[in-house]
Amino acid sequence: MYVKIASAISKEIIEKVKLNISKSLLKDKNNQFGYYLAGLFEGDGHISLPFLGNTTLNRVLNPRIVFTSHENNLELFVNIQTMLKEKGRFQKSGGNTIRFIIGDIEGIKLFIDTINNKLRTPNKNESLNNLIDFINKKYNLAIPFSVLDESDFSENNGHFGVKIVEAKPKSDTRKRSVSNSISLKFRLDQQYIEKLNRESNFNIMEKLANFLDCKLSIYNNKTGKVLSLNVTSLEKVGFVVNYFNQYPLLGTKCKDFKD
User: Fold this and answer.
1) Beta bridge partner(s), residue 173
2) How far, in Å, are 47, 131, 143 from residue 134 at the CA level?
3) Which of 166, 178, 158 has the alpha carbon at shortest distance from 252?
4) CB 9 within 8 A of CB 91
5) Of 111, 79, 108, 73, nearest to 92 (Cα)?
6) How far is Cα 250 from Cα 40, in angstroms, rounded to an integer?
7) Where in the numbering of this chain does the Homing endonuclease LAGLIDADG domain appear (predicted)?
8) Would you say 122 and 204 are in contact if contact means Cβ atoms under 8 Å apart?
9) Are residues 74 and 198 both part of a single domain?
10) Whole-number CA gyration radius for the chain
11) Last residue of a domain, one of 139, 164, 184
12) How many C-beta atoms lie closer than 10 Å to residue 213's C-beta?
């Protein structure tokens, strides 16, 4: 059995990444950082709640907010750490997996304040409210619970595609000529059932499919059933493009979108 061992990413590496961060990443365009962080939490984040009390070693444990992603997104999460007033730490696990972890009480409170009332899926909103309930009881606070919002989570599970077909004349091996054409596609996938709490994503995906006037399909992969919607009409793809121009992506999906 192979066990992945996590190790801390040094401060020297993080400082070097900060020097190379694109200036465009550091800007909170239209004050949308909270919504962006909420969307990222929807797809790549989870919350771990400890026992409410002291351990056998009389240590008080805090919850942990953990984002898991590919190492190519380290710059993105370093930027997020900067936006969160330098809260959180980094780990590397396995060959190319990184984790951004927020575990101190001030960082947790700032995270809650940043994404409160901005989540879109019931399961993650419930997870956040469980965290708020835990923190309120443990530290005698009165943080209000999060009210569910609705939007998308494309930074984590969205895909952009461009298909270019070059013109080809009719020939002995080709019965018909082929005209030049370009087609665009936006695709969004979500697990039918979330692994952590067994909640269904069907309702939110159905609403998105109806909103974008596209078909919601279901397919199976190694992890189970997956909900998938595809936007292919130029009119609807144009709407998606305008949306992400107004509320830009920041991670590796930003490059895919611009391409």
Assistant:
1) none
2) 11, 5, 10
3) 158
4) yes
5) 73
6) 10
7) 37-130, 153-259
8) yes
9) no
10) 21
11) 139
12) 11
Chain position carrying tokens 């026992």: 51
> Long-range contacts of range 173-178, CB-CB < 8 Å, 24 or more positions apart?
none
- CA proximity to 197, closest of 143, 121, 136, 145: 121
Local confidence pLDDT in tens for the 259 residues of the chain: 444 567 888 888 888 888 877 655 555 555 688 988 998 998 889 999 886 555 555 566 789 999 999 888 898 899 899 999 999 999 988 778 999 999 999 999 999 999 998 987 777 888 999 999 999 998 999 998 887 654 444 545 666 555 555 667 777 776 777 665 555 677 888 888 876 557 787 887 887 788 777 889 999 988 889 888 887 766 666 666 665 665 555 555 555 545 5
Same domain, 160 and 201: yes
User: Which of 48-74 are b and which e, b meaning 16 or more Cβ less than 10 Å from the residue's Cβ?
Assistant: eeeeeeeeeeeeebbbbbbbbbeeebb
Neighbours of 130 (CB within 10 A): 15
Q: What is the CATH number of the domain that holds 195?
A: 3.10.28.10
Whether 97 is covered by a domain: the verdict is yes
Tokens of 96: 């190319």
- Which residues are registered as beta bridge partners of 216? 229
C-alpha distances in Å from residue 173, one per residue of 7, 20, 26, 165: 57, 52, 54, 17
Task: Give CA–CA dist 237/235, Å, rounded.
Answer: 6
